[in-house]
């Protein structure tokens, strides 16, 4: 299924859906949708060509046919209402609600379901310094499963590394096996609405700044200040989130051979 939130016109969404199918499958898909809408295929063709509109009731049935979830169904209905609206003030109100729904969809917390095994007190300690997460992830890399190896890799005192490892074992993120350690959970996420998120992002951006001083040609850094329309900002946000999802897919199936950090930023400048 196409990503509904990439579209601001429901007829473009429908046309893209049919054009993404092979010719024979597209004819069958049109017939199936017309049947779900209770209309002739000729009327559906008028809708797709911009000469007619779905009714709100047909929009509801079409959304059910496509298997949209609750948020997608609301977004699709608003697209139809927006397409049908003739009064500018009403269209503007619908655009605002569409924008808000799209931003809700784009919230990474709503798209990624991750287990959080720690109490808030333990989370506060975990996100207080960069090295808790770094050490926890390092345990997934062969050869980085002892206190000595970790201390050497990160340039941390052995006493500090032992404290970190003891903490990870205590909160259930790692287990000790004689003199070695193993990570038990390698996907940690702090939500955008958590009071800890600022510290988490700051930790890793400070480390990114430190990496600039190393002048390592294999490191990658990119910064840009741009001017764009407000309607294009959600498109860029969607691209970045899609990239994050693609990266997560690669990471999920990639063997743990080395340790890296990547940061992604997109924000308005000079906003009060």
Task: Describe the structure in your own words.
The protein has helices at 10-19, 23-37, 41-48, 56-66, 70-84, 88-106, 108-111, 120-126, 130-138, 147-154, 158-170, 197-214, 233-253; strands at 174-177, 180-183. By secondary structure, the protein is mainly alpha-helical. The protein has a domain at 4-106. Strands 1-2 form a two-stranded antiparallel sheet. The longest helix is centred in the last third of the chain and has 21 residues, at 233-253. The radius of gyration is 25 Å and the shape is elongated. The model has no long low-confidence stretch (mean pLDDT 84).
In short:
With 272 residues, this protein is mostly helical. The chain has helices at residues 10-19, 23-37, 41-48, 56-66, 70-84, 88-106, 108-111, 120-126, 130-138, 147-154, 158-170, 197-214, 233-253; strands at 174-177, 180-183.
Descriptive tags:
272 residues; mainly alpha; two-stranded antiparallel sheet
Number of strands: 2
Q: Helix count, per DSSP?
A: 13
Major β-sheet profile: 2 strands, antiparallel
Sequence of strands across the biggest β-sheet: 1-2
Mean pLDDT across the residues is: 84
What amount of the residues lies in strands? under 5%
The geometry reads as elongated
Distance between the termini: 39 Å
Radius of gyration, whole Å: 25 Å
Question: Layout of SSEs?
Answer:
Blueprint: H1 10-19, H2 23-37, H3 41-48, H4 56-66, H5 70-84, H6 88-106, H7 108-111, H8 120-126, H9 130-138, H10 147-154, H11 158-170, E1 174-177, E2 180-183, H12 197-214, H13 233-253
Antiparallel strand pairs: 1-2
Helix pairs in contact: 4-5, 5-6, 6-13, 9-11, 10-11
């Amino acid at each position: 299924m196409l990503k509904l939130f990439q579209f601001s016109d429901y007829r473009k969404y429908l046309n893209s859906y049919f054009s993404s199918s092979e010719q024979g499958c597209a004819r069958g898909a049109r017939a199936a949708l017309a049947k779900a809408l209770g209309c002739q295929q000729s009327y559906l063709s008028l809708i797709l060509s911009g000469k007619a509109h779905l009714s709100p009731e047909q929009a509801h049935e079409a959304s059910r046919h496509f298997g949209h979830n609750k948020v997608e169904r609301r977004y699709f209905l608003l697209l139809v209402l927006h397409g049908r609206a003739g009064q500018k003030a009403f269209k503007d109100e619908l655009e605002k609600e569409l924008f808000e729904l799209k931003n809700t969809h784009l919230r990474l917390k709503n798209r990624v379901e991750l287990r959080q095994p720690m109490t808030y007190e333990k989370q506060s300690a975990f996100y207080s310094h960069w090295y808790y997460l770094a050490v926890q992830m390092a345990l997934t890399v062969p050869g980085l499963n002892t206190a000595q190896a970790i201390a050497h890799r990160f340039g941390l005192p052995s006493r500090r590394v032992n404290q970190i490892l003891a903490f990870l074992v205590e909160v259930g993120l790692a287990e000790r096996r004689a003199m070695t350690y193993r990570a038990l959970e390698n996907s940690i996420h702090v939500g955008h609405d958590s009071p800890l998120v600022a510290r988490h992002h700051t930790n890793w951006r400070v480390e990114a700044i430190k990496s600039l001083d190393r002048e390592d040609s294999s490191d990658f850094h990119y910064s840009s200040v741009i001017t764009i329309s407000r309607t294009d900002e959600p498109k860029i946000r969607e691209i970045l989130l899609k990239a994050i999802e693609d990266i997560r897919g690669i990471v999920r199936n990639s063997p743990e051979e080395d340790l890296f950090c990547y940061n992604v930023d997109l924000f308005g400048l000079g906003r009060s």
